[in-house]
Design goal:
Blueprint: H1 6-18, H2 35-44, E1 48-52, H3 56-64, E2 69-72, H4 76-79, H5 91-103, E3 109-113, H6 123-137, E4 141-145, H7 151-159, E5 164-169, H8 175-178, H9 187-203, E6 207-211, H10 215-224, E7 229-232, E8 240-243, H11 245-248, H12 266-283
Bound molecules: 3-methyl-2-oxobutanoic acid (KIV).
3-methyl-2-oxobutanoic acid binds next to loops.
Length: 294
């Protein structure tokens, strides 16, 4: 496994896309990305982007833009379904949203999140829940939270032919127990995070999300693992980066976590457009002749 510098990474990504090869972002293929493509990207030292999506139309925009991996996160709870946390999200809801995202995409690997309560009982419950996401929604992989504590679930899913993305560090389904705090600070917590990372890799996970952990620790995990790390609030050294789409495009209201970079202000754009429409209706200028039939 070769470790490349940031400059070498950028160069290699450019090279891969300009010769039309297999780069996850910028490469050309008219088939779905698979977990094997993800493994090969780590071997090449290639970085890649991942976004969440919760509906077909938004997912199709990301797919057309070349995002190689789309996560139907249970962040749908806060960002799509109007819950305060991810905890109330159900497997029925995740199945419906995941199916929509699969229908809206052609190239991206779609990863469906297993919601709270759908896998904590043990491997058999996890297999039953993951099977629904694969068979009914058509996802190519599932994600679940937990390191050492979830390794038996991961092992059975992988043995059963279901690729698993693990998720360690801050695990929002445990908000009632851990809050939304940085994880892995201090020697003992850092060692636990390393043990969690190795446990999910040994159990067969094809990638692992590192949420809200110190950048230096995320870099170390990325160095010691053979599987790719996907950072969110985990600094620049992870193999991939994920953001919640409503945060990165500025649709979410209120204060953003420090790790979110907003690339657009959709809330303002949409609000302004809606007000213009309302004023046109109230003022009688919409519909005009142009938008009328006779
Ligand atoms: O549910 C989600 O969107 C997630 C990402 C933040 C990784 O788990």
């Amino acid at each position: 496994m070769t470790q490349l510098s940031a400059a070498q990474n950028a160069q290699s990504a450019q090279h891969q896309s300009s010769d039309g090869s297999k780069a996850l972002y910028g490469g050309k293929s008219n088939r779905r990305i698979t977990v094997r493509d993800i493994a090969l990207a780590k071997d090449r030292g290639e970085k890649w982007p991942m976004l969440t999506a919760y509906d077909a139309m938004t997912a199709s925009v990301f797919d057309e833009a070349g995002i190689p991996v789309i996560l139907v996160g249970d962040s749908a709870g806060n960002c799509h379904l109007g819950y305060e946390t991810t905890v109330p999200v159900t497997l029925d809801e995740m199945t419906m949203l995941s199916a929509a995202v699969v229908r809206g995409t052609q190239r991206a690997l779609v990863v469906g999140d297993l919601p709270f309560g759908s896998y904590q009982e043990g491997p058999v419950q996890a297999l039953r829940s993951a099977t629904r996401l694969v068979k009914e929604a058509g996802v190519g992989a599932v994600k679940l939270e937990g390191g050492e504590r979830s390794h038996e679930q991961i092992r059975l899913l992988v043995e059963s032919g279901i690729p698993v993305m693990a998720h360690i560090g801050l695990t929002p389904q445990s908000v009632n127990a851990m809050g939304y705090r940085v994880q892995g600070r201090g020697e003992e917590a850092a060692q636990q995070l390393l043990r969690d990372a190795k446990a999910v890799q040994d159990a067969g996970a094809f990638a692992v999300v590192l949420e809200l952990v110190p950048a230096e620790l995320a870099a170390e995990v990325t160095r010691v693992l053979q599987i790719p790390t996907v950072g969110i609030g985990a600094g620049p050294e992870t193999d991939a980066q994920v953001l919640v789409w409503t945060d990165m495009l500025g649709l979410t209201s209120g204060r953003m976590p420090k790790f979110v970079k907003q690339y657009a202000r959709l809330r303002e754009v949409m609000g302004d457009a809606v007000k213009e429409f309302a004023q046109d209706v109230v003022g009688g200028t919409f519909p005009s002749e142009e938008h009328s039939v006779h």
